[in-house]
Amino acid sequence: MEFNNLIYQKQGEIAVLSINRPKALNALNEELLQELNIAIDKICVDKEINVLILTGEGKSFVAGADITQMQKKTSDEARNFAELGMKVFRKIELMDTPVIAAVNGFALGGGCELALACDIRLASSKAKFGQPEVGLGITPGFGGTQRLPRIIGEAKAKELIFTGSMVDAETAKNIGLVNNVFEPDTLLDEAFKLAKKIAANGSLSVKYSKAAINKGLQMDLDSAMELEKDLFALCFASEQQKEGMAAFVEKRKPNFK
Ligand code: CAA
């Protein structure tokens, strides 16, 4: 896959998509969002891929939506722009494959929102997180007001969004915004280690678990339990369940296809 603003690599079951507009700190303009949309569509239909890692080139993960492109927008144009960003991020959130954000630097505004749409966030010790939109006279527009409180809780999310403050990686870990923090030069290796650990498991059961968590969190508990029951039952119609349990009984490692 060739793009102007993305670098795509595939190593076996693991795909890496790197946002590549370093001169603008990987700010998200419309072209970049359209490319991201196409890349995610292609990754979704590639049955070989079991984990996606999202990262950024240079010193930034993503420093937000492109302010120069937004500056002159009318309300209608701004609504369309928000719709595009939201559509792509929702696709990332709902794709079967688990997505790890390897946050290598600034994750601000739309960049923080992109990381929030991923399943797991790992950060470089140099990463900085924040929703600085109110300082620009706007609200977050790619889902930040909704995902941030769901992930770190309402009070902390309101503090971050109302003040527009940036927090460092350790603080982000303490408030539950990132899963773990690593030295900058080990971040991608650690993301790969985690991706390989996930990919070594039954891919169907990982995908069903992602669906159960993401969809179940939007439901009442009883309906969510029904969903879990259905997905649990579906696993027993798969070769992977047969292999996983046979391997346990035969005291060997499973060989999932
Ligand atoms: N949009 C457009 N260009 C951006 C950008 C953005 N979000 N962030 C950085 N850039 C550009 C800068 O304009 C600069 O370009 P030039 O070299 O052409 O001047 C280049 O990237 C390098 O940036 P800086 O010189 O500012 O780098 P720095 O290290 O001094 O500062 C920074 C880094 C603190 C991240 C600073 O660039 C910054 O504050 N960026 C904006 C962050 C922001 O407000 N993000 C939210 C955007 S709104 C949004 O995302 C809405 C939404 O929810 C959809």
TrEMBL record:
SUPFAM superfamilies reported for this sequence: ClpP/crotonase (SSF52096)
Enzyme class: lyase
Lineage top rank: taxon: Bacteria
Record has Lyase as a keyword: yes
Gene3D superfamilies linked to this entry: 2-enoyl-CoA Hydratase, Chain A, domain 1, Lyase 2-enoyl-coa Hydratase, Chain A, domain 2
Pathway assignment: Lipid metabolism; butanoate metabolism
Keywords: Lyase
Keyword match Lyase: yes
Protein family (similarity comment): Belongs to the enoyl-CoA hydratase/isomerase family.
Oligomeric and partner information: Homotetramer.
Name of this protein: short-chain-enoyl-CoA hydratase
